[in-house]
C-alpha cells in the first residue's frame, strides 16, 4: 500500500518590525548590528544573528569567512555555538537572523547546515521550541515557532539508537 503524507510548515509574516514585541525587536536590532561586524570579504554578504536564552542572555554572531571557502561559518552557528559554549545548559527561546543588504519581501532563511545545527539544539534543549525570526531591515519578518520546522523529515540522534 502506498500512503501519501504531506507536511505543513507554518510561519507568520509581520509586515514591519514594529508589529513584534520590544524583546523581539531588540533581538532583530542586535542581529542587524552583528551583521555589520561580520567578516565576509569573499562574498560581501553580511549576515547577523542574535539569540536570547530563556534565562535572558543575549548572544550575537555573524558570518566568518575564510580564503579556503568551506572553512567559513555562518552567523547562525556562530551565535549558537558561542551561546552553548558559554552555558552548555542554555535553552534558546528565540534566534533572529538579519541580512542588511537584502531588501524586498523575502527574508533570508538559514542554510541547510544551520538548519541541522538549530534542530540539534532543539533536541538538546529537550525539544523546547526555539522560535526563528528572519528579518529584512525596515521590512517584513518571518516568524517560525520552532527551528525544527525548517527541516522536515530531518535526521537526528534518534536514528543512531534505532
Ligand atoms: N550565510 C550565513 O551566515 N547565514 C545564512 O543563513 C546563509 C549564508 C553566510 C555564509 C557565507 O559567509 C555568506 O553568507 C554567503 O553564503
Please describe what this structure looks like.
The protein is of the alpha+beta class. It has one domain: Cytidine Deaminase, domain 2. Helix content is 27%, strand content 19%. It is built from 4 helices and 6 strands. The protein has helices at 22-35, 75-86, 112-124, 157-160; strands at residues 12-14, 48-53, 58-62, 92-98, 131-135, 141-144. A hairpin with a 5-residue loop joins β5 and β6. The longest helix is centred in the first third of the chain and has 14 residues, at 22-35. The two termini are 24 Å apart. The structure holds tetrahydrodeoxyuridine. Tetrahydrodeoxyuridine binds next to α2.
Keywords for this entry:
binds tetrahydrodeoxyuridine, 162 residues, Cytidine Deaminase, domain 2, six-stranded mixed sheet, alpha+beta, single chain
Short description:
The chain contains four helices and six strands.
- Mean pLDDT metric: 97
Q: Helix amount, in percent?
A: 25-40%
CATH architecture: 3-Layer(aba) Sandwich
DSSP, total strands? 6
Order of helices and strands: EHEEHEHEEH
Report the CATH topology name: Cytidine Deaminase, domain 2
Which sequence of strands runs across the widest sheet? 1-6-5-4-2-3
What portion of the residues fall into strands of 2 or more residues?
15-25%
N→C terminal distance: 24 Å
Total count of helical runs of at least 4 residues: 4
Superfamily (CATH H level) name: Cytidine Deaminase, domain 2
Uncertain runs: none
By CATH reckoning, the class would read Alpha Beta
**Could you give a short account of the major beta sheet?**
6 strands, mixed
Amino acid at each position: 500500500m502506498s500512503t501519501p503524507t504531506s507536511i505543513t510548515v507554518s510561519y507568520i509574516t509581520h509586515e514591519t518590525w514594529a508589529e513584534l514585541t520590544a524583546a523581539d525587536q531588540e533581538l532583530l536590532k542586535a542581529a542587524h548590528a552583528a551583521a555589520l561586524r561580520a567578516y565576509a570579504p569573499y562574498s560581501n554578504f553580511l549576515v547577523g544573528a542574535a539569540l536570547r536564552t530563556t534565562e535572558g542572555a543575549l548572544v550575537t554572531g555573524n558570518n566568518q569567512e575564510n580564503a579556503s571557502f568551506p572553512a567559513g561559518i555562518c552567523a547562525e552557528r556562530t551565535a549558537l555555538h558561542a551561546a552553548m559554549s558559554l552555558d552548555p545548559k542554555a535553552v534558546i527561546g528565540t534566534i533572529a537572523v538579519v541580512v542588511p543588504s537584502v531588501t524586498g519581501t523575502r527574508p533570508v532563511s538559514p542554510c541547510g547546515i544551520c538548519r541541522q545545527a538549530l534542530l540539534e539544539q532543539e533536541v538538546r534543549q529537550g525539544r523546547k521550541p526555539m522560535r526563528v525570526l528572519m528579518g529584512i531591515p525596515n521590512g517584513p519578518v518571518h516568524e517560525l515557532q520552532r527551528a525544527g520546522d525548517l527541516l522536515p523529515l530531518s535526521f537526528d540522534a534518534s536514528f543512531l539508537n534505532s
